[in-house]
Automatic annotation (TrEMBL):
GO terms for cellular component: cytoplasm. This is Redox-sensing transcriptional repressor Rex. Homodimer. SUPFAM superfamilies: NAD(P)-binding Rossmann-fold domains, Winged helix' DNA-binding domain. Belongs to the transcriptional regulatory Rex family. Keywords: Cytoplasm, DNA-binding, NAD, Repressor, Transcription, Transcription regulation. The gene is rex. Modulates transcription in response to changes in cellular NADH/NAD(+) redox state. It comes from the Bacteria. Residues 82-182 form the CoA-binding domain. It comes from Alistipes putredinis DSM 17216. One of its GO terms (biological process) is negative regulation of DNA-templated transcription. GO terms for molecular function: DNA binding; DNA-binding transcription factor activity.
Amino acid sequence: MALIPNGIPEKTIERLSEYRRTLLACHREGITHIFSHVLAGIHGITAVQVRRDLMLIGFSSDTKKGYDVKVLIDFISNILDSENPVNIAVIGMGHLGQAITKYFNGKSLKLRITVAFDVDPAKVDTAIDNIPCYHMECFEKVVQENDISIVIVSSPTKVAPELVVPIINAGIKGVLNFTSTRLNFPQGIYVENYDITTLLEKVAYCVKESEENNDNN
């Protein structure tokens, strides 16, 4: 079980993010309180897991009425969010990069995609979904000028390894890698390798096993 530097397990951080999105949706619908078993049911886990996650971050509450939705949103936000907004860059503005940018911007006030990079002359020096796109030759300079902390890598897989050194040199602190090539960085740079192909194959395998089990019953 991997731990984030503050000692909270990575999986707990992921669940806290999911809880917050659910709580925000509840808040918009006028729901003021929610029980742990309801929150658990929405996320397909146990109420014990929800309570354990919240205890891990120091949250305690009178649960006779359930958790106060607004209070819990604020508490989780204090754990997950930086004090100041975090600027993000996207490397590779193909279909995936543009889809990520379009989906993500506006979702969080603390995390914002502010610049993009590509090598395609048709994209460089243009604005894509209001995000300025620069040539990779300017990467280090633009990153430092715009105080970029995180990059999302959605470039072609074959060029992804070439991005490791520029990312290190630019002082990037976190990387979300959407290519199928695993990228490794030195200690001090957190990387999340998100391989869509592997995840789809995992889902396909589970579907296959489920169908075979049903056929055998």
